[in-house]
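[recover] target loaded
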C-alpha cells in the first residue's frame, strides 16, 4: 500500500489521512532558529526538562512501567503473551502491552491509566473493540504469571515504513505505514465475559529473535525486546519491551506518552504507529466531553516553527525537517535518538491528563486523541507570534479570539477553515510528566470557547 502525497490526496484518502495540509506552509528555514553546535545535557532552555537519566517513579502515571529512560527516549513496559488467529492456518504468537483500562479497580490493580471514556469506544463502531478470550492454565503450567490471551486479530508488521519529506518537509512527498491491522485487530480489547475495555496494543509477533532496527516483526517504536525464561520458585520472571516514547505538553508541563495505533495512514506514518482502519469511526469526531464520546482532544500545529534547539519549534514541519521522520527507529542510530531527545518530536499539546487537580478533567482522560490541527496565518508568522503552545486553554483562546493568527485547516486543500476536529485519531497512552505534574491549565477559557462552560 504505497500512497503518494506529491500534491493533495484524493477526497476519499483525505478523510483517512490527516492533513494534506499545506498550501500555506512556510519555506524551510523561514522561521527556524540556527542549528545548535553541541548537544545539551538538559532541555530546560527549550522547555523540555532533563534530557538524560531515568524519570523518577513518582512522575509516572503508568505505574506498571518498569522505567522511563530520558537518555535514549525509551519506555520499558511489561510484555505479555498472546496468540492470534488460534486454530487457523494464520495462528501466530503475539506480544502485547497494557496501557489503560475503563474500570478504576482494574486500572489500580494493573498499574495502568484509568480511562473511563474507553467504555464508549464501540458505540457505532463495534470493530474498534476486539473480544479476546483468556486461557485457563493448570497450576503446574502456570504457578504464577499472566495467562495467554487469544486475540481475534493482529497487526502485520512486515510492510516497510516510508516517510519521504517534501520540499518544505511537510507535506511528505511519499508515505506508507510500516504496520497495518490484520482482520479483526484493534488495540482496544475486552475479555469475553467482562465489560471492561483495555488498551492492549500488540507490539511484536513471533518467537524471536525480534527485529528492532527495521521492524519486520515489531512495531515501529519497538527498540528492544526481552522474553523471560521460566520463573524460579516464588519469583516472577518478567518479559519487557523498550519502546520509543513521544514528548509533548499538558497544562504547561512537558510530558511523555507512547503512540501505538492510528485510524489513518498518514497519521500512522508520522506517529510510527499501526494503521488500524477500525479506529477511524470511533465515537466520535469533535466529541470531547459530550455524551458517548471515547475521545479526548489533542492539539497539533501544521506549520509551526522549526530548527534544532529552537524553543518555539513545534509541529509537522518541525518533525519532518528536524525529527528524522524518514529514519527507522533504532538504538543503534544515536543521531536519530538525539534528534528526538533534543525536541525533534511533534510536541503536541494534550487536553485532560490523569494528574489534573479537578476530577472533571483527570477522569476525562482518554488514550484515544481527536486531533485539532492549527494553521498559523501569514500575519502570525510575519510578526513572530507563531510561538510554541503548551496549554490547551491557551490554544483554544487563540482559536476563539484571534483567527487572524491561528485557524483550523481543511485537510482536502490545506487552506484555512474554522478551528476544530479534522477527523484524525491516535491511540496515545500517557506515561508520565518530566518536571512537575500538570495540575491546572495556564489560562481560563475565553467566554463561549468551550463546552461545558468552565
Amino acid at each position: 500500500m504505497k500512497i503518494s502525497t506529491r500534491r493533495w490526496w484524493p477526497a476519499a484518502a483525505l478523510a483517512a489521512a490527516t492533513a494534506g495540509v499545506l498550501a500555506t506552509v512556510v519555506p524551510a528555514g523561514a522561521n527556524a532558529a540556527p542549528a545548535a553546535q553541541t548537544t545539551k545535557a538538559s532541555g530546560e532552555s527549550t522547555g523540555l526538562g532533563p534530557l538524560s537519566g531515568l524519570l523518577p517513579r513518582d512522575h509516572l502515571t503508568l505505574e506498571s512501567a518498569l522505567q522511563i529512560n530520558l537518555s535514549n527516549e525509551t519506555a520499558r513496559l511489561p510484555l505479555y503473551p498472546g496468540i492470534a488467529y488460534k486454530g487457523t492456518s494464520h495462528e501466530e504468537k503475539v506480544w502485547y502491552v497494557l496501557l489503560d483500562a475503563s474500570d478504576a479497580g482494574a486500572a489500580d490493580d494493573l498499574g495502568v491509566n484509568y480511562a473511563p471514556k474507553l467504555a464508549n469506544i464501540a458505540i457505532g463502531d463495534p470493530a474498534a473493540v476486539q473480544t479476546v478470550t483468556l486461557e485457563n492454565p493448570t497450576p503446574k503450567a502456570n504457578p504464577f504469571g499472566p495467562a495467554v490471551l487469544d486475540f481475534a486479530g493482529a497487526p502485520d508488521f512486515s510492510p516497510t515504513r516510508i516517510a519521504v519529506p517534501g520540499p518544505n518537509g511537510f507535506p511528505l512527498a511519499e508515505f506508507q505505514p510500516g504496520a497495518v491491522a490484520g482482520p479483526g485487530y484493534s488495540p482496544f480489547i475486552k475479555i469475553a465475559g467482562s465489560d471492561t475495555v483495555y488498551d492492549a496494543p500488540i507490539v511484536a509477533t513471533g518467537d524471536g529473535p525480534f527485529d528492532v532496527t527495521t521492524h519486520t516483526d515489531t512495531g515501529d517504536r519497538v527498540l528492544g525486546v526481552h522474553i523471560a525464561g521460566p520463573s524460579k520458585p516464588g519469583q516472577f520472571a518478567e518479559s519487557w519491551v523498550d519502546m520509543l516514547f513521544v514528548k509533548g505538553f499538558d497544562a504547561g508541563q512537558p510530558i511523555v506518552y507512547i503512540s501505538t495505533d492510528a485510524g489513518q495512514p498518514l497519521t500512522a506514518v508520522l506517529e510510527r504507529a499501526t494503521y488500524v482502519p477500525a479506529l477511524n469511526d470511533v465515537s466520535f469526531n469533535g466529541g470531547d466531553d459530550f455524551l458517548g464520546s471515547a475521545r479526548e482532544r489533542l492539539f497539533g500545529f501544521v506549520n509551526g516553527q522549526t530548527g534544532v534547539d529552537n524553543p518555539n519549534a513545534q509541529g509537522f514541519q518541525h518533525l519532518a525537517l528536524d525529527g528524522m521522520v524518514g529514519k527507522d527507529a533504532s538504538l543503534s542510530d544515536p543521531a536519530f535518538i538525539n534528534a528526538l531527545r533534543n525536541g525533534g518530536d511533534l510536541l503536541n499539546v494534550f487536553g485532560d491528563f490523569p494528574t489534573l487537580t479537578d476530577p472533571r478533567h483527570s477522569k476525562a482522560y482518554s488514550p484515544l486523541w481527536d486531533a485539532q490541527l492549527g494553521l498559523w496565518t501569514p500575519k502570525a508568522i510575519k510578526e513572530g507570534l507563531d510561538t510554541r503552545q503548551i496549554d490547551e486553554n491557551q490554544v483554544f483562546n487563540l482559536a476563539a479570539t484571534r483567527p487572524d493568527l491561528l485557524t483550523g485547516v481543511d485537510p482536502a486543500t490545506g487552506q484555512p477553515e474554522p478551528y476544530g476536529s479534522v477527523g484524525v485519531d491516535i491511540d496515545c497512552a500517557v506515561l508520565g510528566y518530566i518536571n512537575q505534574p500538570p495540575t491546572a491549565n495556564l489560562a481560563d477559557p475565553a467566554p463561549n470557547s468551550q463546552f461545558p462552560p468552565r
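[recover] notes: The longest helix spans residues 392-401.
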